[in-house]
């Protein structure tokens, strides 16, 4: 196949930048651990009371690390408020008891899908005190736009 | 005798159609359904934008998510699919000769099945029994008639598609050793993609959702159904884009008075689209549990390969513009641009679509970028993004196409005033979309969610900000949406005029002459068995292990929940 000279230059430039871009993504992912939320554990969404989600809420792991086990449901989260001191790292472990939801904290990189039967995980360090809004950004039924919770970060 | 001769002359000039009139009719019914769906979808979009921005309140018998479902289904599925098949039937008849009676009949059966399916799904949406949005994610459950409607819709398009493919392969058989006409080559690549991708949605609807909605099974594997949906959902985007590219490759060069720069590259681009648009569905699932990072990354890599045919397309099209502009006497670095027919809607509308595709493509790279997706996943950014890709690039190209395709199939003329009306429509659509989509992109960066009715989250300060900015505001979205609606209504008027009221006469079906390199096109590009084989291998590589894992390590399934959540 005959290729025009400019075509060759354009293709080398295009394919070259593609490779460079993918290497950047790959290094960030596999060398620096910037992975999207992809937790592999599963639960029985119809019997959450018999799982680690029997008592959803906040649990302190060490001085400034907490684990928040939360249940997303139509149309809210259980519990609907958690409180941590500024500087805390919170590991969120979230599952759904009914349909697909999300767990999204606008203004942060915490944004994950919550599918029934699976547990998803994200981690965030709350340096700034204040009230953080958590919302559901996956349509989950007529009351979807009311679904929210609060994270209070105390000074 | 003289009289009857005269009468004959009149008839023949009345029916100055360059296609077999029976093929033209089949094409025309597709276009009619497309534009009625377009009007309803656009009006749904207006109501939804105003309600979302808190400007109006919907009456109690109409819910936000019901309109959202209708808007998505009517525009993204019905309008696009019908206009694409209208274009394909007409274009195949023009470039490969009239369809045989049997193949045309298959086209009609496809049309009727698709339309019955559309009517069934639409009825359930209107009855608020299928407010599951056009992604219908399990375990939200719609009425079973909705799923049967979807199945008929897909099967109907398969039948039409197969009829077009057989028409192409018949030509190929009769002209052994010759390169096939580009139109048929590209239409065939698009239809193969549609059929292969449709297998995913057919599998989830027939094997998972329908038995579950009918009560034959109690539970559904949610992750598997999502994965099968996105196996289909991403190639769906290319099913829209590839016919738009066909207009760019085959029609626009003729409209501007030139010929396509390179035929081999055009074929290569379409083969690459076929190969690399299917095994990439996970990039819609980057933020969900149950799929390992490794497989997500593999599909991210495969996703980005699509950059190559997109760059090829950009090169070919602009090379064609420059070549044509220079042949017409354009000199210097840019002055050939002046030689292009900027006042011709058949060129200008697709051109605006191309311009919008530059930011749209850049946004797409961000969406698919593995980690970066967390910032914008399921925010209004995504809505802004696909209103640029499908809603502007593809739609403006199809609107530009309507100005010659409708007169061609109805044997009418594109008048000067209609051309002017089309120019106004294009400008209004572009301005409306710039405002709406721009505001959506920025709101999304600030975290505003997509697919969400009017809410301030109990006056959360963050959420209130989304209503208060000058540009970055739901109000801007609604203003842009209103301009778009006006453009949409004007376009519907254009359609009605062109279809039934324009003066009878001759309109050219613009089709580029074969590119100069056609005789040297490598034969391998015509080897469909090879390309389908490679596509299957890529799909098996990207999906086998993750799907095996989803079935074997599945959590207990989910029962159905309707959208009201009882």
Task: Walk me through this protein's architecture.
The complex is a heterodimer of chains A (155) and B (566). Chain A is an alpha+beta fold and 155 residues long. Chain A has one helix at residues 5-30; strands spanning 57-62, 65-73, 76-78, 81-85, 88-96, 101-104, 111-114, 120-126, 130-135, 148-154. In chain A, strands 1, 2, 3, 5 and 8 form a five-stranded mixed sheet that branches. A three-stranded mixed sheet of chain A has the order 4-10-9, with no helix packed on it. In chain A, strands 6-7 form a two-stranded antiparallel ribbon. The longest helix of chain A has 26 residues, at 5-30. The relative contact order of chain A is 0.17. With 566 residues, chain B is an all-alpha fold. Chain B has 17 helices and no strands. In chain B, helix 5 packs antiparallel against helix 6 (182-213). The longest helix of chain B has 34 residues, at 222-255. The radius of gyration of chain B is 24 Å and the shape is globular. Chain B starts with a helix and ends in a 14-residue tail after the last helix. Chains A and B meet through helix 1, strand 7 and strand 9 of A and helix 7, helix 8, helix 9, helix 10 and helix 12 of B.
Task: Name some characteristics of this structure.
heterodimer; A: 155 residues; alpha+beta; 5-stranded mixed β-sheet; 3-stranded mixed β-sheet; 1 helix; 10 strands; B: 566 residues; mainly alpha; 17 helices; 0% strand; disordered N terminus
């Amino acid at each position: 196949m005959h290729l025009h000279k400019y075509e060759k230059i354009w293709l080398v430039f295009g394919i070259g930048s593609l490779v460079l871009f993918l290497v950047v993504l790959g290094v960030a992912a596999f060398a620096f651990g910037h992975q999207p939320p992809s937790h592999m554990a599963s639960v029985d969404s119809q019997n959450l009371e018999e799982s680690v989600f029997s008592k959803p809420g906040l649990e302190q792991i060490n001085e400034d690390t907490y684990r928040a086990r939360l249940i997303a449901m139509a149309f809210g989260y259980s519990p609907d408020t958690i409180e941590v001191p500024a500087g805390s790292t919170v590991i969120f472990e979230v599952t759904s008891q009914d349909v697909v939801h999300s767990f999204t904290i606008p203004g942060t990189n915490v944004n994950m899908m919550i599918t029934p039967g699976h547990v998803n995980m994200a981690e965030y360090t709350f340096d700034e005190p204040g009230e953080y809004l958590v919302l559901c950004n996956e349509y989950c039924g007529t009351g979807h736009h009311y679904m929210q919770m609060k994270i209070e970060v105390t000074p | 005798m003289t009289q009857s001769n005269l009468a004959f002359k009149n008839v023949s000039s009345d029916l100055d159609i360059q296609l077999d009139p029976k093929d033209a009719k089949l094409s025309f019914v597709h276009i009619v359904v497309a534009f009625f769906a377009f009007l309803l979808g656009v009006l749904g979009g207006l109501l939804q934008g105003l309600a979302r921005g808190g400007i109006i309140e919907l009456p109690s018998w109409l819910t936000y998510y019901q309109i959202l479902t209708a808007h998505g289904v009517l525009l993204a599925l019905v309008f696009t699919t019908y206009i694409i098949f209208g274009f394909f039937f007409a274009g195949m008849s023009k470039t490969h000769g009239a369809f045989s009676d049997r193949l045309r009949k298959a086209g009609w059966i496809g049309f009727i099945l698709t339309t019955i399916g559309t009517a069934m799904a639409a009825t359930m949406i209107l009855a608020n029994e299928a407010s599951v949005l056009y992604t219908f994610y399990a375990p939200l459950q719609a009425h079973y008639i909705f799923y049967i409607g979807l199945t008929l819709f897909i099967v109907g398009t398969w039948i039409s598609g197969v009829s077009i493919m057989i028409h192409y392969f018949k030509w190929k058989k009769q002209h052994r050793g010759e390169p096939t006409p580009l139109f048929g080559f590209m239409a065939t690549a698009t239809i193969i993609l549609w059929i292969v991708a449709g297998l995913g949605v057919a599998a989830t609807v027939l094997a998972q959702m329908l038995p579950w909605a009918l009560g034959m099974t109690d539970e559904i594997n949610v992750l598997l159904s999502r994965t099968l949906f996105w196996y289909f959902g991403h190639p769906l985007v290319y099913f829209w884009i590839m016919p738009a590219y066909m207009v760019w490759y085959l029609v626009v060069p003729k409209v501007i008075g030139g010929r396509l720069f390179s035929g081999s590259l055009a074929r290569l681009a379409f083969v690459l689209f076929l190969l690399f648009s299917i095994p990439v569905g996970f990039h819609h699932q980057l933020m969900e549990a149950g799929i390992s990072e490794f497989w997500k990354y593999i599909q991210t890599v495969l996703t980005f390969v699509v950059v190559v045919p997109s760059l090829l397309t950009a090169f070919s099209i602009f090379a064609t513009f420059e070549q044509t502009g220079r042949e017409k006497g354009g000199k210097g670095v840019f002055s050939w641009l002046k030689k292009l027919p900027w006042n011709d809607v058949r060129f200008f509308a697709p051109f605006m679509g191309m311009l919008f595709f530059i930011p749209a493509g850049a946004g797409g790279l961000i969406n698919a970028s593995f980690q970066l997706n967390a910032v914008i996943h399921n925010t209004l950014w995504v809505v802004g993004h696909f209103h640029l890709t499908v809603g502007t690039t593809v739609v403006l190209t199809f609107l530009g196409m309507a100005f010659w395709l409708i007169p061609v199939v109805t044997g009418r003329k594109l008048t000067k005033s209609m051309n002017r009306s089309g120019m106004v429509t294009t400008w209004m659509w572009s301005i409306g979309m710039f405002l709406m989509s721009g505001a959506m992109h920025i709101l999304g960066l600030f975290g505003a969610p997509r697919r969400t009715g009017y809410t301030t989250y109990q006056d959360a300060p963050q959420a209130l900000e989304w209503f208060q900015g000058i540009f970055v505001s739901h109000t801007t979205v609604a203003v842009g949406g209103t301009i778009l609606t006006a453009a949409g209504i004007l376009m519907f008027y254009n359609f009605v005029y062109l279809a039934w009221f324009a003066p009878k006469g001759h309109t050219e079906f613009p089709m580029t002459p074969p590119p100069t390199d056609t005789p040297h096109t490598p034969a391998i590009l015509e080897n469909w068995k090879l390309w389908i084989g490679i596509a299957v291998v890529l799909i098996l590589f990207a999906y086998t292990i993750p799907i095996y894992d989803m079935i074997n390590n599945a959590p207990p399934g989910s029962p159905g929940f309707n959208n009201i959540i009882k």
